[in-house]
Amino acid sequence: MLIGFLSGLLTLIFPGLPxxxxxxxxxxxxxxxxxxxxxxxxxxxxxxxYPAWLGRWLGPSxxxxxxxxxxATLLHRGDLPYIKQKQHDxxxxxxxxxxxxxxxxxxxxxxxxxxxxxxxxxxxxxKFKGDYVSDYEALIAEFRTANPxxxxxxxxxxxxxxxxxxxxxxxxxxxxxxLIHTVARDSNAKxxxxxxxxxxxxxxxxxxxxxxxxxxxxxxxxxxxxxxGQTPPAS
Length: 235
Fold this sequence. Notes:
single chain
């Protein structure tokens, strides 16, 4: 406050004194996804979820926010559609400059998928797979309406080993990922492949679906590289 007062005083005394340019607004980054983005199962999701690492590495010139919703589907007719969650509304209202989307894991739910869990009835989300591309492209269109200059990154989901709660790795690998490839091509979005780097790293997924702290950090490193072309700073 004192600095502002002195600056104003100098301007009155020396009206020709050049003014410092205002600091540019931070680049807004929205991390959109399900429980993997949210940070379920981590020791401290506020510090260890991939968006937290990404924000620290990108630094103060970026405003990185976590809009993950546990259990969310990309499919509008899934058992928990992302578009009907408050995180969706908040993410669009944020008018992000960069959007990183990872949705598809819960969409793969089908009876007989993953490890059976008698305490959780399995949703048949993948029976609506015919809507996946159009629903995804509609989500991207929302972000581009909110900010026409937004850069969109679509992530291939991380693998499952083999999955739980009806989540099915074969469906993710052989069906969900090819459809995301189609979405990226049709929508001129960039792909971040988070499946291949973890395909043989079961040790990072203790419950067969969610990454542990080390896995989340590795995810963040891959996303950081996709956004910047660089490896993250040492931490």
